[in-house]
């Protein structure tokens, strides 16, 4: 699929390529929120000051996060014609050594994690850095990286998220350009349907079908919304996707808007993500400037623009109807469905709501075709999924693997097992409303159906690892306490039921529980799951139900039998 | 409401004319397409417990007591009958063992949430639930007397029908209460007591004293009452009177407008009698 981009954009693309592969050494610092939190900002400032003082020919840019949280702050160095070298656990006091090494044409080998000779951004633009520094391991030789498949995170930590030129240079917006110029909206929609892409927010509803339902509704106005209200404890995939590659999301939304037939999109993002909000706003402004958002995109008849709506700190506002209420300025409380958003969403108009990561999947599907995409992942679960692998695991970080990968592979092969050599006991998938899965079920593949079958959910992609020291009853209490605090209070099973679940768990943990309490706990949890109004209440008892099933002994040892 | 496809049952019935047949507990009943199933059940005298449903308000689905089993081929699904719309051949079961089990658990939760409510006690007793395993809420200072079950009927009637928006939900989760802004007096209150009449658990306390109506549960909001120039009784909140009289066209004549309903009918009756005796 050859595309002839407008001259203005081609110029920016070329300028981006010069920035990514300059004829002077390029130093980058991982500055997503995570990198900044462990000292990245200070490192960046120190390097900037030193470079200014010594005035050498060096380029210094911020990037997003490459996902290896444990090894942050991560700094990369690329000499012209040499591989891109990742330096890990850099501190401010290493900055002078780094600069000295770079100025003498090399890299500080003691800080080097791995090298990248060539990188495929999957949008038809491979970047070849070069060869050399053979004593530094290759990227693929690092187990944490080598066993992943980066589709969504293909640009994260490599390009500057605040520079549209670099995004264009790695093939960004070429899918949107080609679609708007050469494809019918229906063809775009069919490609997404054929790709088998399912909603990455947790429920796994086929994205193409949701688009079609919205498209086929008759209405003078329609909306598309990106759900960026990521609120699960321990989950930060969407944050990194927006902070490291905001244009990928925008491109996905342009394609969705074109397929569905709407001119207005919103990103509903939680206020707790200030950097993501800033980078998205910046990216939207850059895209507007180049005519990629706004009236007559790429000179076509198609117009579309995106606004940002920030949340006010309620977990339940990730639920579709509560989210719309929040955007409209009402209290974020869910209402019963139907009507679904596709019938009556924002301002009563048909609305398509998809998660950040769902939108991010679209450009690569349109670029490479549905068949290419379907070859990644498993039956009925195509594509990759980004997980945040956290908790008592040796290698904490963002992990992107094809759907259908086993838990064992994620936790042991990529995560290298328990932290500090401790034995892994369980993982919890799917955020606060997921279930706790015991070690003996780690052959379970991570896909929507398999996780449901053992009482957990995919959710948005949090994987919390628990080691042998973990008290599973206490874990259940923690998650119930979270859900109780985040319940909106509209329906009784969630409002009162979770409160009493918490009271029961506290009583059991205090050693004052009885065998009857365990029965009550179980039947109460079942009622909450069966009768709650929205997904929050329906899934909130999962941690209790799964720990009761898989770790019953721990409960029994706490109560007087 | 901004949500224009959500409308009350009455409105929907006016729009819909299509007759359909629904099946409740194995028996066929006539219904209008789009009508809520709880409404059909109420009309047909089939018992489905409910606390947050009111035909003239938009469906809310919060009390979870009216859940029924919707049968669809070999699958069944639990849904609230107050939000389930009638369509031809729709089959529901109102009292399967599963439904009853969850209903009893919810009633236990209600007994703990509103321990002072006789309505809840007797409703629970009908399902064999006479005590609760859960901690009872006891708040000595609760302006709603530990009887509120947060069904939202008062909030909705005040917003949707009266258009006053005096009360709302405050806080969230288990800390949710219904109250006025900052739990203080709210001068927007018309004193119409629509909230009192829809409250299923009789939780809202009011009292009339002299020329004032006191909405005790709503931050002790005081509403001025209108005095009847004839009998001297205080009979109608001033703000409500203004709102209602503004809607009557042509307006009532000044001398009857001021009177209380009793004196007004007496006045009219006397006029009629004297007019007819004059004719004679």
From TrEMBL, chain A:
GO molecular function, one term: 4 iron, 4 sulfur cluster binding
Regions annotated as coiled coil: none
Iron is among the record's keywords: yes
Keyword Cell division: no
PROSITE patterns membership: COMPLEX1_51K_2
Pfam (any one): NADH_4Fe-4S
Keyword annotations: 4Fe-4S, Iron, Iron-sulfur, Metal-binding
Entry-linked InterPro entries: NADH-UbQ_OxRdtase_51kDa_CS, Nuo51_FMN-bd, Nuo51_FMN-bd_sf, Nuop51_4Fe4S-bd, Nuop51_4Fe4S-bd_sf, Thioredoxin-like_sf
Domain NADH-ubiquinone oxidoreductase 51kDa subunit iron-sulphur binding: 473-518
PANTHER family: NADH-QUINONE OXIDOREDUCTASE SUBUNIT F
Family classification: Belongs to the complex I 51 kDa subunit family.
UniProt protein name: NADH-quinone oxidoreductase subunit J/K
Organism of this sequence: Methanoplanus endosymbiosus
Lineage summary: Archaea, Methanobacteriati, Methanobacteriota, Stenosarchaea group, Methanomicrobia
From TrEMBL, chain B:
Gene3D superfamilies tied to this protein: 3.10.20.740, 3.30.70.20
GO-annotated cellular components: membrane
GO molecular function: 4 iron, 4 sulfur cluster binding; metal ion binding; NADH dehydrogenase (ubiquinone) activity; oxidoreductase activity
Organism: Methanoplanus endosymbiosus
The UniProt record lists the keyword Iron-sulfur: yes
SUPFAM superfamilies: 2Fe-2S ferredoxin-like, 4Fe-4S ferredoxins
Residue ranges occupied by any 4Fe-4S ferredoxin-type domain in the UniProt entry: 136-172, 180-209
Record-given protein name: 2Fe-2S iron-sulfur cluster-binding protein
Iron-sulfur listed as a keyword: yes
Range of residues in the leader sequence: none
Sequence ranges assigned to domain 2Fe-2S ferredoxin-type in this UniProt record: 18-98
Keyword field: 4Fe-4S, Iron, Iron-sulfur, Metal-binding, Repeat
Biological process according to GO: ATP synthesis coupled electron transport
